[in-house]
Structures are given as C-alpha cells and as structure tokens.
Amino acid sequence: MNLPLLLLFGFAVLLMLLLAWVLRDPREFAQPDVDLGYAEDLDRRHVTYFPQVRQAMAAEDSAFLASRASQALTHRVRRERRKIALAYLACLRGDFLKLWRLARVIASMAPQLGAAQELERLQLGLAFSWRYEMIRMKFFLGFAPLPELGSLSKVVSRLSIRLETAMKDLGERAALAAKLASSMDGRGLDTP
Amino acid sequence: MPLYILVLWACSALLQLITLILLFANGSFRKLPFFTMYVALNLCQVAFLVFVYSTWGSESEKGRALAWYSECVTLLAQALATTEILKVTLRPYQGIWGLAWRALAFTSALVVLIVALATYGDWGVAGWFELNRGYHLTFAAAVIACLLLFRYYSVQVPDAYKRILGGFCLYSCTEILIHTVLQSLGKKWFDAYQPIWQSSTMLSFIVVLSIWVAALWKPLPIEAQQAAPPSDSIDPSDSVYQRLSPEINERLRELNEKLLRLWKLEARPQ
Questions:
Q1: Mind telling me how many Å the CA of B52 is from chain A's nearest CA?
Q2: B226 lies in a domain?
Q3: Same domain flag for B246 and B205
Q4: Are A113 and B169 inside 8 Å of each other by CB?
C-alpha cells in the first residue's frame, strides 16, 4: 500500500471513529444525580480565593516560616500549601469550563454567529488549557508561578463579567418583549 | 452475475421499498421531501440497472458507463437529502446554520483538494472509482464536521435524524475503505475484484437501510411551532405580536431548558 492510499485508509478510519464519538449520547456518560447543596455552591466563584492562595504561596511567608519553624515542618507546610494551590487551580479550570459552556449555549441561541468570534472563543479555550497545564507543571516541579496564576484568574473573572453582562442583556430583552406583548390588547406573554 | 449478489440486490431493494413505505405511512415525506426523493431514486436505480445489465450485460463498457451515470444522480440526491436534514435540525438555530454552511463549504473544498492531490495521475485507470471515493470522502468529512459543530454547541438532534445522518456517513466511510483496500491490491485487478466490491458495497448499504428503517419506524418528531391565525382577522400590530410571541416563547423555553441541562451537568459531584 503506497502513501496516498495509506493516508486515505487512515482518514477513513479516523472519520469512522469520529462518527462513533459524535453520535454517542452525551447523557450516557453524565451522572444523573443532582446534589442541590453542591449546586448552590456553584454560585460561588473560586476565583475569589486568589488573594488567600497568593498569600499562602508568597516567598516572604515561606521565609518567615523557615526562620521560625523546623525544616520538617516547613517542608510539610509547603507541600500542603502546594496541594491547596493545585486544588485552587483545578477549581479555576472548573469555573472556566462552566463559563465556557454557558457562553456556547448563549451563542447557540443568537440569531447570527460571527465565525471570527467563535474562533476567538475556541482560541481562548485552547490558550486557557495550555496555560493551565504549564502552571500545573510548574507547581509539580516545586515553583510557585504566582503571576501566571494571577493572570489565569483574571481570564476567568473577565469571562464571568462578560457572560453576566450578556445574560443581563438577554434578560432585559426578554422583559422588554414581555412588556411589549402585555401592552397589546391585554394579551399576556405566555412565558414558561 | 453470481447468485449471492442477486440475493443482496433483492434484499437491498426490499429494504428500500420498506423505507419508502414508512416515509409515506408516517407522513414523514412532507418533512423530508429530498430524503424521500433519494430513497425513491435509489429504487428507480435498481430497476434501471436491471434493465441495463440485462440489455448490455454488467461487463460491457456501455453498461458500466450507464450504471455510473445513474450513480451520479443518486449521489446528488444524497447530498440534497443530507443538506435538508441539517437545515431542518438547525432551523431554530439560525446563527449556527450560518456558521455550519460555511464550515461545510470549507471542509468540502479542503477535502476535494486533498483527494485531487492524492489521486493525481491515476485518472486513466479507474476514474469512476476515484470520483466516487472522492465524493464519499468529501461528503463524510463535511457531515462529520457539522455533527461536531452540533456537539460543540450542544444542539439536540432528534434520534431519527441522527440515525439517518449516521447511516449516510457510515455508508460513505465503508465505501472509502472498500475502494482503498481493493485499490491497494493492485489496479490491474480491479475487474477481478468487481464481485467483492459489489457485494461489500451492497452489504454496507443494507446495514444502513436497516438503520433507517429502525429510525423511521416511529413518526419523525413534530417541531414546536404554533399555527398563526388567518391574517385578515387581526390588525397589523397584532399580527406582529402573533408572529413574534411564539418565537420569543420558544426561544426562552429552549434557553431555559439548555441552561437547566447545563446546570444539572455541572452540579454532579466530581
């Protein structure tokens, strides 16, 4: 089998695999149980904990601890604080993914989608994933990449603000539509 | 022609007939006229090929050329039927449809270019086979690109449409694989492998037809659209309201459902 035929064969197999993946029902893999307590927790953005994480990972803090406590205790505290920072990073990613999905849902309802905007969003997702992995790697290697972590937190914050504005706009438009409808002949808008 | 090919042919024709009957019995032909036309054309093609092969023989140059011309017609109908299903699915999502047709055009152009480069210089040997494979490659890539877009935007595709689109794609992918494997065995042996090619192609089409029969067993989902009252019974401002109100309601309901679904997905314990 020569190279073009091999490429065609590979492409066909890839298409079949993609088809199987794309036709799979996403609900099959979603867990149906909904924990309301946890759901309420989702309202709280993890990005608000960045000042505490920054304080915990600050070099001055570590130096102060090293001057007062034993080496074993210093190591233990550093290890635990790194774990906390990694947990914060994972939650930040969770926040981002949630906002990113929400943005896609809002975009899907728009009467017109700009290819450039959509590409920009895709690019944002990829850039976030790349930066997330780099920061995680740095944490595992024992560094404390606080400026990078700060800028990643800012990305999540900005996205959150942009989405909140979009949701507010949507709500205002819906309210306006309802107001317009109710002013006509006393017919109310039968919203669900 | 070997007996097993005739049997496969008969099975395929029977399943096509069942599909057509189901389309008319469920009233689905009104919703998918191009898909109905595609199935009907396929059935006509069977009759046409029986006539061609019995008159000129399956090995003759003229018989083969006529068979391939008829294939071109059904492939065109296949493209129309698929576009119709994509359009019906994306009707409430005008923004995504605008992006989807651009994605379709881009993917198709890219794949056509790749196919042209990959098969450059081989046209004299098995031109029809190359054209057929090129079409299926372009078709499958474009439809999968659209399905990926659906998934990206969490667009809910009704199960029946998903199966029809999946069937089309599956058929195209198996066609590409069969052509490539046979071609890798040597171009000069194309004639020798004709029965294998025919039987494997027909077998994959029978599988696809079975999927479609299962998909069309129940009537296609009804779109949530409210009928507007006669236009002469209401004043212009009312008509705008009558037209816009269900649309706004539908949009809000849909957005609400989507956000709830997303919420449930996010709320699961990690």
A1: 32
A2: no
A3: no
A4: no
- CB-nearest to A22 from B93, B119, B151 is B151
Torsion of CA B172, B177, B179, B183, to 10 degrees: 160
* Candidates A104, A109, A184; nearest CB to B237: A184
Give the minimum alpha-carbon distance from A78 to chain B in angstroms, rounded to a whole number.
Answer: 26
Q: What is the pTM of this model?
A: 0.69
**CB within 8 Å: B144 and A15:** yes
pLDDT in tens, B19-77: 999 999 988 899 999 999 999 999 999 899 889 988 888 778 888 888 888 988 999 99
What is the per-residue pLDDT for B65? 84
* Residues B194 and B72 reside in one and the same domain: yes
What is the distance between the alpha carbons of residues B38 and B72, in angstroms, rounded to a whole number?
Answer: 12
Tell me: do B149 and B209 sit in the same domain: yes
pLDDT in tens, A89-131: 899 888 888 888 888 777 777 766 677 777 777 888 888 889 9
Q: How far is CA B250 from CA A19, A112, A179, A190, B16, in A?
A: 30, 17, 17, 10, 36
